[in-house]
Amino acid sequence: GYRCQCVSGYEQITQGHDSICAAKSCGNVSVSNSRTPMPLSMSYPESRTIQCAEGYSTDSSTSEASASFVVECAESGSHFNLQVCQPVQCNAMPPLKYVNPMNQVQHVFGSEVAFQCMDGYSVDGTVGGDTSFSASCSSDGSWTLSDCRPITCGSFSSPSNGVASPTSAFIDGVVHVSCDAGHSLTQATYVHETAYTCTSSGSYVASTSQGIEISNTPTCYPVSCGMPPSVLNATVDRTT
Asked: CA angle at residue 138 from 132 to 144, to 5 degrees?
């Protein structure tokens, strides 16, 4: 008989009545989060390029060089340079002005973070609008997110014979209304001006003036002087 002396990377096997030198098998390789079909069967001296799935890389960076790696079947029969595909790390969360504070932690691709608007704010700035939203980390590490806006009570129209300034306000904002000379916001007594506050219900509410209730819909009434006083030995020629 005889014995084969196989070169490195090969091993002697029996094939029928013969002994031959066959390439060593490294077995199957399987990498999670890969777009390359798995598993892969490899023998010496094969090498295969493994492409990570979108949003994954060998070092969690967005570098193109880290999006793939080459694995080899070594002469020892083991895999060389076998790596893993890890989710990409997200960029720092951009500052959001009108959300409740949250702890800053490191997020990775696929993460979703819930936010809650501060009181007096909603996602679209309307009363009854959503007061929470979610942000997701994209495959390139960037964030897709919204923000909260101050709730507005809408436009405020100036009354006839008066003026409103400004013409709109956000929650807790104030619109000042003043009547032209000779006009009053109430008929019971003379009130030249007052403030209307935008409330969390989305409506404007008038401030009371010296305990006098004022309509939440301003009207500037002509001031009434009432009946003229009686004058001894005189008559009233005209009343208006």
From this structure: 35
